[in-house]
Design brief:
Length: 287
């Protein structure tokens, strides 16, 4: 952790200790897992009673501004509600900019999904301050969300459906439809791999891919990225289809799922044939 950010965090903790509405707080994110480094940010989770929740949240920008030379951005997540709030902030200290996330849990509604998610993996040892012991008691209840793996079959269906859909967008030279559908292919491939390799019950897909998926499979995912030119995007799709087919076959075998080889063969053959042919209208007029 950067020394300036440590100083700002300690200032925030001092102010929280002086605010009777704050019951306590714990570390979430890389600090909890012991993977933080000089580039990491703090992710404190603060516990507040329902009666104080909204008023306390409204004062967080002023609190962060006091801990820094300047609060540049205070950005609330779209999913913020009356039970959980996450504010992503950008502060300036001297000439350096630092990110400082701030989570608030409503202590009276711990069963809300986001509340349980931000208790995951957190224990008494991660508490940075506890007013009366209520924070430790809260975490000792073991609130957490279930680990839900992506659906392997849905990932395959999503992938091959949108592969066929890409043909018309390439023929129309519709750049942004191509980009959108290639993004769907990419994330369907991510879901396919995580449906088998994911062993983490925390983190977003990018962390799960980095830490769970074998390196050779990670390279399969990078094949989707190309310069926004039609021929390069088409080449990226052509590179990626065999990788997905290979990964899907292996995962289906490992999980005892029937692999839809006939369907895959038809769609891949059709994709290559149509992409190598002229416009649909020209082909139909010749028949």
């Amino acid at each position: 952790m950067h020394a300036q950010l440590e100083l700002a965090f300690n200032k925030v903790v001092t102010m929280l200790q002086e605010d009777p509405r704050c019951k306590g707080g714990w570390h979430y994110g890389s600090v909890t897992r012991g993977t933080d480094d000089i580039y990491s940010d703090y992710d404190p989770v603060v516990l507040v009673a329902d009666k104080d929740f909204e008023a306390f949240a409204a004062e967080v920008p002023a609190l962060l501004a006091k801990a820094a030379d300047e609060l540049l951005i205070f950005w609330g997540e779209s999913f913020n509600d009356a039970y959980f709030k996450n504010y992503c902030s950008l502060i300036r200290i001297g000439e350096q900019l630092h990110q400082f996330d701030f989570f608030i849990i409503n202590a009276d509604y711990p069963e809300a999904w986001m509340c349980r998610q931000h208790c995951k993996g957190c224990t008494e040892e991660h508490i940075f301050w506890d007013r009366t012991g209520e924070t430790a008691a809260f975490l000792s209840k073991g609130y957490r969300t279930d680990q839900e793996l992506p659906d392997t079959v849905r990932a395959m269906d999503t992938y091959w459906f949108h592969t066929e859909m890409l043909i018309k967008y390439f023929k129309r030279k519709d750049m942004f439809k191509i980009i959108k559908n290639m993004d769907i292919l990419f994330h369907a491939h991510v879901d396919l791999l995580l449906s088998y390799y994911d062993t983490l019950d925390w983190g977003a897909w990018e962390s799960k891919v980095k830490l769970c998926v074998p390196e050779d499979k990670q390279q399969h995912l990078t094949s989707y990225f190309a310069k926004a030119e039609f021929h390069e995007l088409e080449d990226a799709v052509r590179r990626s289809l065999p990788f997905f087919r290979q990964d899907a076959e292996e995962i289906c075998v490992a999980k005892g799922i029937a692999y839809p080889g006939g369907t895959v063969q038809q769609i891949m053959s059709y994709f290559y044939r149509r992409m190598d042919s002229g416009p649909w209208e020209s082909k139909c007029s010749q028949q």
